[in-house]
Amino acid sequence: MEHELKTLTARLLAQRWLPRGDKLVRRALVDETFRLELDRRLADVGLRLLDNPYAAHVGVALQPELAEPVFGAGREYAASNLGLTRDEVALLVILWALIVLPKRQRQVTRRELVDDGQTDLFGGDKPVAHGDAVSGTLTEASLIADFGPRLGGRTKVRNFMLGKLARLGFIERRNGLVTEGPLLDLALDYRVMADRIIHGTLGEILEAAGHAPPESNAFELAEVLPDEAEALDEED
After folding, report:
1. Which of 59, 88, 163, 184 has the fewest CB atoms below 10 angstroms from its CB?
2. Average confidence (pLDDT) over 210-236
3. CB 213 within 8 A of CB 104
4. CATH 1.10.10 matches 2-71
5. In what order do the strands lie in the sheet with 17-19?
6. Out of 7-11, 31-35, 206-210, which region has the weakest mean confidence (pLDDT)?
7. Euclidean distance between CA atoms 179 and 170, whole angstroms
8. Given a cut of 60, is residue 216 above it in pLDDT?
9. Best CA proximity match to 102, nearest among 209, 158, 180
10. Domain limits of the chain?
């Protein structure tokens, strides 16, 4: 077990995130002894494992109490410890709302992108799906047309902002399409953001642009997370 723990810890530190289906990651999710030792080793250097059962990846982050000592000296920390500007943070939140919120609703109801919910009588018994089966795509053209003027212009959004978010791992860009990256669902806290977006000002902006987030009951989706995490561990 020692070699596996060293290997997984080193890979998490070097690569920042790993797919949930990775052999050692799966062991950390189902082997309590292995997970406790992994958590201890990460905690020794001020880190914690990011494990969202609805996300397709796991990653590492600073323990909350160390965020200020580590990042507080930089002026940009007030907005982001990744050096994101206010406009870039705004675009990131918009992308999260347009990709993750609809995806989460499909995951909770066990529906896939091609499923209208009428053909599978036992859909609720299926394991939570990840990846392309539930995660939708956006076209860069429509995204820029709807939100570019609010975020500094088309050129800025296309050539700089989307590229930066892709390099950081929040999104992936391919043939004019924007899809979910490893960190989009993992690094942003669903419990904090969902209800604020659905019932807040951003929800009104998205609706005006024709991209209204689903009228899902955000409280109910948030409440299901702990139970789902336990169920997923048992399934794995």
Report:
1. 163
2. 47
3. no
4. yes
5. 17-19, 57-62, 47-51
6. 206-210
7. 9
8. no
9. 180
10. 2-71, 84-235
Interatomic CA distance for residues 89 and 182, integer angstroms: 17
Which pair of structure tokens corresponds to residue 58? 């796991």
Q: At a CB cut-off of 8 Å and minimum separation 6, what does 158 contact? A: 140, 144, 148
- Cβ-based neighbours of 37, under 8 Å, separated by 6 or more: 1, 5
- pLDDT value of residue 201: 60
Please give the structure tokens belonging to residue 2. Answer: 């020692």
**Contact of 185 with 50, CB cutoff 8 Å:** no
> Which residue reads 């050096």 in tokens?
83
C-alpha 1/C-alpha 184 separation (Å) is 31
Secondary structure of residue 41 in the 3-state scheme: helix
Residues pairing with 48 in the sheet = 61
Alpha-helical (H) ranges within 148-217 are 154-156, 162-167, 184-187, 190-199, 201-208
Comparing C-alpha atoms, which of 50, 74, 73 is closest to residue 61? 50
